[in-house]
Amino acid sequence: MLKYVAKRILMVIPVLIGVSIIVFCLMRVFSPDPAPIVLGQHATQEAIASWREHNGLNGPIVGQYFTYLKGALHGDLGISYYSNTPVAKEIGARFPATIELALAAILFASTVGIFLGVVAAVKKNSIFDAASTMFALVGVSIPIFWLGIMFIMFFSGFLHLLPSGGRINVLLEPVHVTGFYMVDSLMQGNWPAFEDAFIHIILPSLTLGMYSMAIITRMTRSTMLETLGQDYVRTARAKGLSEAKVIGKHALRNSLIPVITVIGLQFGALLGGALLTESVFSWPGIGKYTVDSILKSDFPVVQGIVLLVAVVFVVVNLGADLMYAFLDPRIKYSSKKDG
Question: What is the pTM of this model?
């Protein structure tokens, strides 16, 4: 097990280096020069040249990359061109909002997706099976930004039930401890703040999690159908076990192995793919901040966020792999298998 974890951690290094090279080059090749954007349209050529020199943008791109890489290895992701604040601090102030949204979205997607997938498999070829399949197809097909706008129009504009954007009412914002508003409000016993934060996260989490829910539903249904046809399931039924125990204890647990992989992949994708959702709902996370930074050519911020998302994605998938051993005792990370 330890050898397997060590190998996976070592595999992270080339992945992160590759990601850093790609985003570093893309930002400098396809993004406009940040100097006129930062200094304004009336800036002189001398001021632009001085600003570029101060920020290390006049040297060869290879040298710029190695300077950036050296700082990143020491935890220095650079300084934002606009706020003159360390990128790590800027990301740290916004990342909890994205994590909170992604957790709410994956919780919705996993709970609803597994439930629909299991029932669709158990009631194969029924009306419910057809309905859940159609629901999953719709969830995969609908663009996130369009779904978010429809939710806002219906639940906020027509029914007036839920807020159309933001993370919490500024008058109810709890004292920052963890950065997760619902957790902080619970720790402080601030129930109005918890309720308001919960209400604000409903529409963004449903919008963000809809695609993942559809993927999890389809995967769960597929694996459950395969598992229900196995000999050990038929044996369990022949022994007189209740259908609930057969499905829950024998079929579902073995079916969850590939589903856990999908959930891990989807959670990593939610962290990096919340750009549209956060923009539509004015959610103050790194997704919206990334969009703003790309438009302003704030190179250090974009590079830092992409690296952070890459690290989280790899860590989440490593955790999903390690869950295999818990869900299926037949899977062993032995030294023989690793070597």
Answer: 0.81
Which residues, 6+ apart, have CB-to-CB distance to 323 below 8 Å? 260
Per-residue pLDDT for the chain (339 aa), expressed as one digit of tens each?
677 677 777 877 888 888 888 888 888 888 788 888 888 878 888 888 888 888 888 888 888 888 888 888 888 888 888 888 899 888 888 889 999 999 999 999 999 999 998 888 888 888 888 888 888 888 888 888 899 999 999 999 898 899 988 899 988 888 888 889 999 999 999 999 999 999 999 999 999 999 999 999 988 888 888 888 777 777 777 777 777 777 777 677 778 878 887 887 788 778 766 778 888 898 988 888 888 888 888 888 988 888 888 888 777 777 777 776 665 655 555 544 444
Question: Count of residues for the chain?
Answer: 339
Cα-to-chain-centroid distance, residue 79: 25
Residue at token pair 């395969």: 226
Question: d(Cα 239, Cα 219) in Å, to the nearest integer?
Answer: 29
The backbone region for 75, taken as left when phi is positive above 0, alpha when psi lies in -120 to 50, beta otherwise, is left
